[in-house]
Amino acid sequence: MTLWFVFALMTVAAIFAVLWPLRRAGRPQSEGSEAAVYRDQLGEIDRDVASGLIGSTEAEAARVEISRRLLAARDSQDDAPVASSVRLRRSAAMLALIGLPIIAVATYLPLGSPRLGDFPLAQRARAPDAAQPFENMVAQVEAHLEKNPTDGRGWNVLAPVLARLGRFDEAVRAYRNSITYNGDSSERRSDLGEALAAAAGGVVTAEAKTEFERAVAMNADEVKASYFLGLAAEQDGRGSEAASIWRAMLAKAPPDAPWRPLVQAALARVGGAPVPLPGAPVLSNEAMAAAKDMKEADRSEMIRGMVERLATRLKQNGDDVEGWLRLVRAYMVMGDRDKARSALGDARQAVANDEARLRELNEGLKNLGLDG
Amino acid sequence: MIAESGHYALVLALALALIQSTVPILGVRWRDPALMNVSRSTALAQFMFVAVSFVALVMLYVTSDFSVVNVYENSHSSKPLLYKITGVWGNHEGSMLLWVSILALFGGLVAAFGNNLPLSLRAYVLAVQGWIASAFYLFILITSNPFLRIASPPIEGRDLNPVLQDIGLAVHPPMLYLGYVGFSISFSFAVAALLEGRIDAAWARWVRPWTLVAWIFLTLGIAMGSYWAYYELGWGGWWFWDPVENASLMPWLAGTALLHSAVVMEKRNALKVWTILLSILTFSLSLLGAFLVRSGVLTSVHAFATDPTRGVFILLILCIFIGGSLSLYAFRASALKQGGLFAPISREGALVLNNLFLTAACATVLIGTLYPLALEVLTGDKISVGAPFFNLTFGPLFLPLMIAVPFGPLLAWKRGDLLGAAQRLTAAGIAALLAVAMLWAWTRGGNAFAPLAIGLAVFVIGGALTDLAERTGLFRVPFTTAARRARGLPRATWGSAFAHAGVGVALIGIVCETTWNSEYIGSMRPDDVAKIAGYELKLEDVTQRKGPNFSEMLAQFTVSRDGQRLSEMTPSKRNFAARASSTTEAALLTNGASQLYISLGETAADGAIAVRIYYKPMVLLIWWGPILMAFGGVLSLSDRRLRVGAPKPAKAARGLQAAE
Amino acid sequence: MTRKQRRLTMIGGSLAVLAVAAALVLNAMRDSIVFFSTPTMLAEKPVAAGKRFRLGGLVQPGSLVRGDNLAVTFQVADGSAALPVSFKGILPDLFREGQGVVAEGALDATGVFKADTVLAKHDETYMPKEVADALKKQGHWKDDYGAKKPDYSAKPAAAAQGAPQANQGVSQ
Questions:
Q1: Quick one: pLDDT at residue B228?
Q2: Contact criterion met (CB below 8 Å) for C74 and C64
Q3: Which residue in A316, A319, B111, C78 has the fewest CB atoms around it within 10 Å?
Q4: Does A20 lie in the same domain as A35?
Q5: Tens-place pLDDT, residues B367-404
Q6: Angle at CA B650, nearest 5°, toward B649 and B652?
Q7: Domain edges within chain C
Q8: What are B284-296's pLDDT values in tens digits?
């Protein structure tokens, strides 16, 4: 309510500024005129002559000229005292009283956000905003690390969070720091590689591949690194090599490994035969299963969110063939064939006018195992 | 509350500007003094509301309220307070708000101190100001609103571009804006004169202080911007002929011409139509500068992040104001009464010459700036017009102007005596020749152009001194009389002498810096020594340090000359985490007007740093010159006296009568 | 001198100055103007060795080689074509692999672009306009460069890519 009160006060002040001069009808006393300037100039000549700055002949010539201007100015001046008409003043006042608030409100309402209070940082730091606990925390950790850059544990905590937030470049830096201050490990190396690949838009770059190779060198069973090495091979067009890497992973994997379906899907993608599950799933502890389900749900929620964003982006800009292929593939991995099919339709439509892109799309789809 | 109040105050300012731009004009049409007076109170109130709005934005930056988009995008909580405040105008939206605040400030000043103006003229002037203000309020509210909000505010801002986190930035744009926007007053006076269909010497008297204020600030703003580029960009360059720099130079050239032609008008009632045109052109060029910087048609360090709608909107404003005022000029100029007569060889003639060269120089800059744009639109070819173009066009046009500068003040009004002026300039000419001869001998051959240019500069400075000596009768009358006369001399005369001398001083700096600049570029390791211009610079150590929102690599140099330790210099390189970018902080060592300049490049894998060292002789004169000019302007501004140009009557004229 | 003669003198003088200015401008236009090109444009429309021009494009990742005494070489590419560039001196603060760059200089006889100036004065919202235009034309434009609309969420734009989705599963 106070905000509207302030607005009202300001409006009244503005209206008052317009009304103020309308209260008087006459001409103000303090008004300049050209004649006054010329009279002052004549006075100036006398002073200049007195101080010896100009000669008397020049002064005389100047006087003649200025007097001429003075006469001309007198002629053109309208000395008739004009009084203001009451009618005009009334209409001007009406304009101020009605027009001004209307203009102000009509302009402000569509632009302003009157319901939003202030959020100065000091106040928010004291009482953390419930809507932002997570980012708050990230900012705090970042601030802490800015001051204590050698705190390895801090980097360890921060790095995956940054990766989750999509700040991959910063995540890369954080993982590097984590390796520097916590020591090398296969997990950290493969996390770093993952962040590098994510920063490159999902492409396993040479830099990322090096990290994965280091990770595998340290621990041949490092799952993530192996998976990504397979992906790198696939992206390089060496499908069979990718298939053999993944097949080896599946062969070594415990039957209940959560990543099994993913690798299998990847394997299917490059045309490898699926590896049968050795034995039935042995899920004993119910509580553990529940916990895992939770995690699984969480995870798929996140994946879904990312896919959703990709889809929105492609809706806005459909030229990105790579993106379409990724979307279709993602839907297939998630087991959502209907959506994959509709995305396929959208993709064809989006690039229908572009011969080259259409060809690229069809080829890509063939590689995915869908006919073009 | 602060954000929304600021926003609403801006909207109210728009409403007041709309009233200010209509009611007073109707008042003049219907000869109603009360309506004419509305201009005054609305102009003052409008300024008050914009000021509220601007202060609100500053407070939002200070309290780091990231619920405001503009604050979120351009500030960071760890930034020092000073840069939180200067960050307000380090971005497009905030700088536009500063722009209109200054516009309203000038309008308010005319309203407050315009008591000596005729009522109708004041009403017209303020109404035209109201038009300009309304257009820009609409522009800000619609396309560049600094008060837009985010419903769920982020916890941290994105920080100001680190290059802009510098004290030079704190003062240089407001100065420039004071200059650009100040010329809006002379524009409004010109349009008012055209609307009234009446103009004479008194008009020039009324416009004089406003033009001078704008010119002083523009001069200082350009000089400061140039110095900022010199030490912050780390290349040691002070003028790049960058389109945005040109955009500030063009109004300065036109404004300088305006200043001179307005003198003729005030004193001699001549050149009236031309002065009106210059007023319009000067402000038009200021607007053009705003368009070029903000529309994204140009590439520049200074360019703001751009948005096509803004460009179109500003282009629209540009077309309406420039097109409108020029057509008004075309329709009404012939109705204005012609002014007084004068011979080609006279003070007036000299000032016309000055105007010709300044406007021609301004036109070449305009062509150099706009030609690449036009070519790209027409043929699709992309070209860049750089320093060589401007050196080949601007330089030759300035040369005759500089030769003419000392003659102008020595010629009499109406009809002058060129030979007499030349005789009185003998001393200055001899000084100039001596300077040329000495430099020639000292540099032994070398660049023949540099000594000549410095000789010219000495001639200009000598000419300014001669003018003062002539007027006070120094060396001709007893010293006490001369001193008494010097005190009685109008301050405007002192002012023009200072300003002309300033041009000469700046020219010396420019020539020395460009001709005898020495440079060392190489990679250095600790304990390496670089030798340049007789100085020895030893890299002692490289250390790391933490600043408030950056980390910094400092290199420590000891400077010695002939084995004697002189001083230390510590250039640095700063890394800003929030933007993942870095800046180079050059180290400067001043010796008289000369400077040693060190800036750091990247560090190689083996620990060696790339280093750039310059020795720049007399480089500071480049900026002392404009400061002298601005000081001359201030002196002239403080001169409250009326100006009279006493003509030389025909019968008293001697000597070169034939010149007429 | 009559009023008319005086006026003619004035007009004559003005025209003379304007003519001089025009001559200067035309002369300078002929000699001191530099064209802009990209590697792709060069492939279509070659520029003679020794003629100065500005070269724009992206610095090819992995191509930057630092030699002795501040000499550097790198490749400037704009999608389909790349051109080797050599430069001696200090690269600007914002010079990075994969970022836009504008270099001024000329081709030598072997087809290497000898640059004497390298400009890379851009931050995340700024890139040399010529480069941006040229890349836009070839469809190599990433939206992030334009920074038209800031996204207030925590920048998920890059997250919506293929591999990250897959690897989330692996990492658990």
A1: 84
A2: yes
A3: A316
A4: no
A5: 988 888 888 778 877 777 878 888 888 888 988 999 99
A6: 70
A7: 1-33, 35-144
A8: 999 988 777 776 5
Overall pTM > 0.95: no
**Backbone dihedral angles phi then psi of residue A51, each to the nearest 5 degrees:** -90, 5
Confidence (pLDDT) at A47? 81
Query: Are both A346 and A265 inside the same structural domain?
Result: no
Extents of the domains making up chain B: 1-165, 166-412, 518-616
What is the Cα–Cα distance from B386 to C35, expressed in whole angstroms? Answer: 11
The closest alpha carbon to A234, from A339, A336, A325, belongs to A325
- Domain range for A324 is 298-367
Residues in chain C with CB shorter than 8 Å from the CB of A329 are 162
The residue count for chain C: 172
Whether residue A288 lies inside any domain: the answer is: no
Report residue A283's pLDDT band, with 50, 70 and 90 as the boundaries: very low
Nearest CA in chain C to B585: C93
CA atoms within 13 Å, Cβ hemisphere of B77 = 19
CATH superfamily of the domain spanning C35-144? Nucleic acid-binding proteins (2.40.50.140)
Considering the domain architecture, whether residues A158 and A232 belong to the same structural domain is answered as yes
Burial zone of A150 (CB within 10 Å; 0-12 exposed, 13-18 middle, 19+ buried):
exposed
A154 and A232 co-located in one domain: yes
Distance CA A82, CA C55 (A): 70
Which residues does chain C have within 8 Å of residue B354's beta carbon, measured at their own beta carbons?
Answer: none
Tell me: the pLDDT tens digits for B396-446? 898 899 999 999 888 888 888 888 889 889 989 999 999 998 888 887 766
Report A:132-171 residues touching B (Cβ under 8 A). 132, 135-136, 139, 143, 146, 169
Pairwise pLDDT comparison (B631 vs B91), residue with the higher score: B631
d(CA A367, CA C125): 37
E strands, chain A, are: none
pLDDT value at residue A80: 53
Q: In this model, does residue B465 exceed pLDDT 90?
A: yes
Residue A44: inside a domain:
yes
Alpha carbon of C45: minimum distance to chain A alpha carbons (Å): 24
Residue A283 lies in a domain: no
Q: Do A224 and C171 touch (CB under 8 A)?
A: yes
Average pLDDT, chain B: 86
Calpha distance B365→B361 (Å, rounded): 6
Q: B301 and C125: CB-CB below 8 Å?
A: no
Report residue B401 as tokens.
């102007």
pLDDT band, residue B266 (cuts 50/70/90): confident
Among left, alpha and beta (phi > 0; psi -120 to 50; other), residue A271 is left
Q: Does the pLDDT at position B651 exceed 60? A: no
Residue C161 contacts A, CB cutoff 8 Å: yes
Q: Does A90 touch chain B (CB under 8 A)?
A: no
From the list B4, B154, B646, the residue facing A3 with the nearest CB is: B4
- Is there a single domain that holds both residue A104 and residue A148? no
One domain for residues A199 and A265 = yes
Q: Do C36 and B579 touch (CB under 8 A)?
A: no
Tens of pLDDT, residues B441-454? 887 766 778 889 99
CA angle (A280 as vertex; A276, A286 as ends), nearest 5: 135
User: Given a cut of 70, is residue A77 above it in pLDDT?
Assistant: no
Residue type, A288: M
Does the residue A125 lie in any domain?
Answer: no
A99 and A140 co-located in one domain? no
Residue A63's identity, in one-letter code, is: R
Task: Report how far apart the first and last C-alpha atoms of chain A are (Å, whole number).
Answer: 63
Domain count for chain A:
4
